[in-house]
Amino acid sequence: MKDKKIVGSFQLMKSLNKSLILNTIRTHGSISRSDIAKETKLTPPTVTNIVNELLEEGLVKEWQTGSSSGGRKPILLKINSSNFYVFGIDISPREIRFAITDLNAQTLLYKTITMKEEMTSSRLFQMIAKQLYIMMDEACIELKKFVGIGIGIHGRIDADEGSSGFALQLQHRNVPLKKELEKEFRLPVKIENDVRAMAIGENWFGSGVGISNLVCIKISHGVGAGFILNKKLFHGTNGLAGEIGHMFIESSGLKCSCGNDGCLEALVGSEGIKQRTLNKISLGYKTKLIERTNGMIENVNGQLIYEAALEGDLLAKDILEETGRYLGIAIMNIIHLFNPERIIIGGGLAKAKNFILTPIQEVVEQRALTEQAKKTEIVLSKLGDQATVIGAVALVLNEMFSVQYESVS
């Protein structure tokens, strides 16, 4: 028994050191063996042995020679990003986005599949598995070249078990995607709520690079947030952290899908924006939206409202600016609760930045408690529509490059 514990401890240390070295190479872009040893405080022989394994596995490659103050020039190492690949999947209520990327999250193949009918758990798995096989064939990449599958999915998620909990729009409960996909593809599968995946994606590759404390907010059919606090994704006690769509905003607000009145999602989600627009038209407000929908105003949607606002339609502009003010109230509360360095806004509503950002900033500047809080950075997602699918890829990379301790000698 003692020998097994010793072997287990050795393997754990070796695995941690391997991840530490991989992450050091990734964050530096290129670095020599000697500088890895200095950076990680690992011994040169340990670094040499692990680097040799990484070279043999093809995860790292020797790139070019570095500068030297005397003696032989060191050989620089870098991640062999184009030698291995990751599947990223974004499952939303109406469509599924798929991507194949390299280890730098550079997209090689990207597809969007519309869900035209309600999916059972088994049909959802079958659709995903079929699409992954099709994309492998189209990209001419063998399965052995993939390091994992990352999934961002709308709704509450058990990230450890890898199953989706309840999602009001998807109507799925306890879908065992992780178990089924790992069984089918023999690859590690990481699954997370779509907005938390987006937060990791922005932190690794988007508007949140280098930021230790940030909040990502996604506004589309629903509204949610992903929190990265002290460089770690925050789930809360029961995985409920980030459900800001059900933050109470207005006592006389519209009824939310959760059954309560005045939730943020009921005001700024796609259905909420549509309903507020219809209510104002019923009161006699003039708008080009009636013409744009050929009189069938019940077909109005966020895209049409945005286009009308660009053309100077006063009602459309008012709706979007009001949306910005509602968001500003929510963001001000988030700033007071978590004091993040940066807040990133993504989802479909982010495209209306010219109409929503100023009202958001005005609310924060008027109501935030301190001067520093008033100046909290509020920016748009750099990854746009691909934020969650790239975030899903980052889930796999985060596991691959993760370091639990500064160093293990």
UniProtKB/TrEMBL annotation:
Name of one Pfam family that matches: ROK
TM region(s), chain numbering: none
Keywords from the named record: Carbohydrate metabolism, Xylose metabolism
InterPro entries, per database record: ATPase_NBD, ROK, ROK_cs, WH-like_DNA-bd_sf, WH_DNA-bd_sf
Domain of life: Bacteria
Function: Transcriptional repressor of xylose-utilizing enzymes.
Family, as annotated: Belongs to the ROK (NagC/XylR) family.
Name of protein: ROK family transcriptional regulator
Native species: Aeribacillus composti
